Design the sequence.
C-alpha cells in the first residue's frame, strides 16, 4: 500500500469511527460509572458558602469517603451573583474566589461541581444562564469546574410561552443541547447533569442531548415515604442507563436525621441497585460513625459502581416485600430484599426469579458475611422499612 493510500484509509477509518460514535455524553470518558460525591442542597440549602465547601472537602478526605470513591464536591443553587458589564457571571459574597476554591478542592484530590439553569433565573431565584450559555461554560472552565447541574426551573417561562406541548419540549431540548455544545467547546471535561424532574420521559432522550445523568423525579426529602416513593418507582427504565449516562433518582439523604438506620440502608441499597449517582447530601463534617459506615459500605458501593453499568429492576413483589436485582460484571447479581412495612417481615426469596437454577452462593452485604450455599426459598427476616442485601452467584 502506498503511503498516500494508507493515509486515505486511516482518514476514512477515523471518519467512520466519528460517525458511528453516538452523541451521548457532552464529553466522553466522564461518568463511566455513576458519579459519586457530595452536593450542598439537601443539608445546607441556601446556606452554602466557600467555608462550607472547604470544610466538606476536608471531611470527605478525612472521613475516608474519598478513598471509598466519592469524588465530586458539588455547589448547588445560591452561589450566583450579578453579571458584570460584559455579561460575565460573578459569584456572590458567599464565594469570594471560585478559582481559588476549585484549586483548593483539586488539591485534595477531589473535583468541583457547580449549578445553573437554562432559564433567566434558577429555582432559588438567582441568575441563570439564558442567553449566556457559551460565556458561562467558558467561565466554569476557567474556574476549573468539573461538573454542571443544569436545572430547568426558570426556563418554564419560555416553555409556557411556546404555546404547545411540542413547542415547549423543543424549547427545553434546544436549551440542553445549547449548554452541551457550550461545555464541549470549552474542551474541559465536565459531567453534565440534567435536572428537569423527569419531564417528557427524559430517560428516552437525556443521553441524546449530552446528559451524563438526568433526574427522573421531583425533589427527594429526608423522609422514608418520599425516598421510598421515588426509589421503588424506578421500574422499567434501566435500559436507558449505562456507562456515561445514568438515571438519577436524586441525591442521598443518608445522615440528615429524618430516617432510621434501617431506612437509610434501604436508601443506599436501592440507589446502588439502580446504578444511581451516589451524591451524599448530609454534613460530612459532623456525621456519626453509623452514617459514615452506611455511606462507605464498600460491598454496596461496588454494586453501584459495577463496570457492567446495568441498572437493576424489581424482579418480584409479595405484599410489602419487594425483591430487586442488578446484574454484575462477574456474572453474579446483587439482590435486594426490601420490606416496605412498618413491622419486620419474613421474605421467601426464589432465586429462580433472578435467573439462577438450584442452590446459589451468597454474601450478605450489610453483615459483610459469606453465607455459603443457600437455596430457594430462602427465608429471611427483614426489619421494618429495612433491607437484606446479597450478592448471589453460582
Ligand atoms: C430544584 C432541584 C434541587 C435543587 C434546587 C435548588 O428544586 O431539583 O435539587 O437544586 O432546585 O434551588
Sequence:
Amino acid at each position: 500500500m502506498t503511503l498516500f493510500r494508507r493515509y486515505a484509509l486511516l482518514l476514512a477509518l477515523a471518519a467512520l469511527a466519528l460517525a458511528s460514535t453516538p452523541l451521548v455524553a457532552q464529553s466522553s470518558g466522564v461518568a463511566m460509572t455513576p458519579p459519586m460525591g457530595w452536593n450542598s442542597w439537601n443539608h445546607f440549602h441556601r446556606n452554602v458558602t466557600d467555608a462550607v465547601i472547604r470544610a466538606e472537602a476536608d471531611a470527605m478526605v478525612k472521613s475516608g469517603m474519598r478513598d471509598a470513591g466519592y469524588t465530586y464536591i458539588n455547589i448547588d443553587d445560591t452561589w450566583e451573583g450579578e453579571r458584570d458589564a460584559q455579561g460575565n457571571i460573578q459569584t456572590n459574597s458567599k464565594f469570594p474566589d471560585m478559582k481559588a476554591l476549585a484549586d483548593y478542592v483539586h488539591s485534595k484530590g477531589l473535583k468541583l461541581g457547580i449549578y445553573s439553569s437554562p432559564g433567566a433565573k434558577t429555582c432559588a431565584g438567582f441568575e441563570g444562564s439564558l442567553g449566556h450559555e457559551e460565556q458561562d461554560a467558558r467561565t466554569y472552565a476557567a474556574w476549573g469546574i468539573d461538573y454542571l447541574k443544569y436545572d430547568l426551573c426558570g426556563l418554564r417561562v419560555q416553555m409556557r410561552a411556546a404555546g404547545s406541548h411540542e413547542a415547549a419540549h423543543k424549547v427545553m431540548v434546544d436549551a440542553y443541547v445549547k449548554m452541551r455544545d457550550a461545555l464541549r467547546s470549552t474542551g474541559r471535561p465536565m459531567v453534565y447533569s440534567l435536572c428537569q424532574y423527569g419531564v417528557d420521559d427524559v430517560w428516552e432522550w437525556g443521553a441524546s442531548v449530552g446528559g451524563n445523568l438526568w433526574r427522573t423525579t421531583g425533589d427527594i426529602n429526608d423522609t422514608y415515604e418520599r425516598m421510598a416513593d421515588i426509589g421503588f418507582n424506578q421500574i422499567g427504565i434501566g435500559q436507558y442507563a449505562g456507562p456515561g449516562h445514568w438515571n438519577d433518582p436524586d441525591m442521598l439523604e443518608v445522615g440528615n436525621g429524618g430516617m432510621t438506620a434501617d431506612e437509610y440502608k434501604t436508601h443506599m441499597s436501592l440507589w446502588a441497585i439502580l446504578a444511581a449517582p451516589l451524591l451524599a447530601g448530609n454534613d460530612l463534617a459532623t456525621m456519626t460513625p453509623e452514617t459514615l459506615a452506611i455511606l462507605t459500605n464498600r460491598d454496596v458501593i461496588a454494586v453501584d459502581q459495577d463496570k457492567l453499568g446495568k441498572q437493576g429492576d424489581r424482579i418480584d413483589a409479595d405484599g410489602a416485600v419487594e425483591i430487586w436485582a442488578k446484574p454484575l460484571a462477574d456474572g453474579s447479581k446483587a439482590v435486594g430484599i426490601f420490606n416496605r412495612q412498618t413491622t419486620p417481615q419474613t421474605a421467601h426469596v426464589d432465586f429462580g426469579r433472578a435467573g439462577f437454577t438450584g442452590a446459589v452462593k451468597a454474601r450478605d452485604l450489610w453483615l459483610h458475611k459469606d453465607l455459603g450455599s443457600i437455596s430457594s426459598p430462602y427465608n429471611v427476616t427483614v426489619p421494618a422499612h429495612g433491607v437484606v442485601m446479597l450478592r448471589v452467584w453460582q
Residues 41, 76-77, 122-124, 151, 195, 219 surround alpha-D-galactopyranose (CB under 6 Å). The longest helix spans residues 165-186. The first strand starts at residue 36 and ends at 39.
